[in-house]
Design a protein that fits this description.
alpha/beta; seven-stranded mixed sheet; globular; binds glycinamide ribonucleotide
Length: 187
Amino acid sequence: MTRVAILASGTGSNAGALIDYFSGDSEVNISVVGSNRKAAGVFDIAEKAGIKSFRFSKDEMDSGKLLKDLKSQKVDWVLLCGFLLKIPSDILMGYKDRILNIHPSLLPKHGGKGMYGMNVHKAVQDSGSNESGLTIHKVSENYDEGDIVFQASVDISHCTSAEEIASKVLALEHQYYPRIAEAMIKD
Ligand code: GAR
């Protein structure tokens, strides 16, 4: 059984989609959910699903404690779902090519520091583009720059607000993140 940790800072809807998708899977187990934010919605989602969760500080992440905790829980893969802190190099080395992130735009467009959540969708709207989408990529030392594993685009030419773009992209994220993560993990 491959043990997976989800790290999330916010609402946790992608975490919920992954948990639902893998529930009952004979090869992949979402074993633990971690967050740096006390009020993260992902804690309720984990509790309802009976999945262990824990909170950690940025200091604990940067000082090696998070890596130690992930290893002691025998985690094999890490999936980021709206996780907003930069992953430190010890975790990148400890989980080389086994950390995926989802980003709500067609990278390299609208990525980088400060580009998360609604900031991304507002930037897409301001750009006047007719399409947006999602990117699933391996995590590297720079925000949103790791190898791209998958992208899907969506027509936003009729969207009149950043919120509308966000909801179109989020639906696509829920559809694809579990399947792409499964393909990568089971490969
Ligand atoms: C998602 O749209 C995800 O792509 C984005 O945060 C949202 C989290 O939503 N991630 C980033 O912007 C990373 N730069 P969720 O908490 O409902 O899954």
